[in-house]
Specification:
alpha/beta; 7 strands; 42% helix; 240 residues; 17% strand; Rossmann fold; globular; 8 helices
């Protein structure tokens, strides 16, 4: 029997890496996208894993109707990975309401609303999983990224609360908080800035695969006594 996972943000570098890793572990996938269709990822997966299903689903999570549109396209799912998002490097004083609203909708309101709508589907399964890709900045905050840090922190609060709510029903809810991962989102850093960060982080810079492996572990069945936790994938940059 096929098991289905929804990867929100599958067209991004993190989401694409997560999708490939979950498919390797036997998951059929709903590949959510907005601006960029995950055509390359979907094509690779269909060729590599012909026994599985890969369904592309579209929704603009910045819009109020996004969660209903997304949920309506999902017929069965026992795993949801929230890997969508965008950065905003800006002082709070220069951040306008439209930017705030977009960050909140994309990172918190729409994903949480989609999860709410899909919870009855999760409950069909004796075990199910939700993993939210947050950020190190959701834990410790970042100057010039106050708004972004705020929504990533809200994701972590949601994970802790919803994990308690869903544990009796068998749904594990966890977060992954990456540190500095080499993706296009960080392309604005200069060579010198990247090298300085490499020297600051004990294990150096991270790769999308590092995040994907953490997600794969959390939904593998080998982490079923873990819920409400934030798994830090930051190379020792932040320890607690």
């Amino acid at each position: 029997m096929k098991k289905f996972a929804l990867v929100m943000g599958a067209s991004g570098e993190l989401g694409g890496s997560i999708a490939r890793t979950l498919a390797e572990s036997g998951w059929s996938l709903y590949l959510h996208w907005n601006a960029n269709p995950p055509a390359e990822v979907a094509s690779y997966l269909r060729e590599a894993y012909p026994e599985l299903e890969f369904i592309e689903v579209h929704a603009d999570l910045s819009l109020p109707e996004a969660s209903a549109k997304l949920a309506a396209q999902i017929f069965d799912v026992s795993c949801i990975v929230v890997a969508n998002g965008h950065a905003l490097v800006k002082m709070l004083i220069d951040t306008d309401d439209a930017e705030w609203d977009k960050l909140w909708n994309v990172h918190v309101k729409s994903p949480v609303s989609a999860i709410r709508r899909l919870s009855p589907v999760l409950l069909r399964h004796p075990k199910s999983y939700i993993v939210v890709i947050s950020s190190i900045w959701g834990e410790i905050g970042a100057s010039m990224e106050t708004a972004y840090s705020s929504v990533k922190g809200a994701q972590l609060a949601f994970v802790k609360a919803f994990a308690k709510e869903m544990a009796p029903s068998g749904t594990r809810v966890n977060a992954v908080a990456p540190g500095f991962i080499m993706t296009k989102m960080n392309s604005g850093f200069s060579v010198d800035e990247v090298e300085s960060l490499r020297e600051e982080i004990p294990l150096g810079l991270g790769k999308p695969q590092d995040v994907a492996d953490a997600v794969d572990f959390l939904v593998s069945g080998k982490a079923d006594y873990i819920t409400g936790q934030t798994l830090r994938v930051n190379g020792g940059w932040h320890m607690q």
